[in-house]
Design brief:
A five-stranded antiparallel beta sheet has the order 4-3-2-1-5. It is built from four helices and five strands, in the order αββββααβα. α1 runs antiparallel to α2 and α1 packs antiparallel against α4. Helix content is 64%, strand content 11%. By secondary structure, it is α+β, with helices and mostly antiparallel strands.
Length: 191
Amino acid sequence: MVPLKKSCSAAAPLSQLKMYSFMGGGLFCAIVGNILLVVSTATDYWMQYRMSGNYAHQGLWRYCMSNKCYMQTDSIAYWNATRAFMILSGMSCFAGIIAGIMSFSHFSSFERFNRSFAAGIMFFVSTFFVLLGMAIYTGVTINFLGKRFGDWRFSWSYILGWVAMLMNFFAGIFYICAYRMCECRRGNGPR
């Protein structure tokens, strides 16, 4: 005897539970990712190095030496690019969070607009922006600043940026999975 396949509409309560689980997991990853983005962008521990026998550290906005911090007033292209991409990433992640929260409600004034899909795309855009910012900073730091300072290392603000990228990527994956579950329910329902 051949087992019968369950259709998506027959398992609608279970499918809906899975869809909300994906959306909840995506929303959790996105909120954590956005918090990490803000902390990473705002703090000044992207790089630590030894200068004149003292430890110093720098971020995107300021640098600190001998327990005194100074604003980075130089307009250096890679810092500006990294700042811009990190800010754009945070903004697109925030827009994705708003779309993700709105996707829990089923009301939609547009028949073809799915907020789960929009949230997933916004999280992927955020991932792309943070990847660009981190890649620019990494490349310039290794090739230019790494040669300038002999004893240096990336620090916790920098690492938080990479973790935020992963969280945004997984938020996008979860919301696209939720969108696919929603499409499965719609495609097999009565017309």
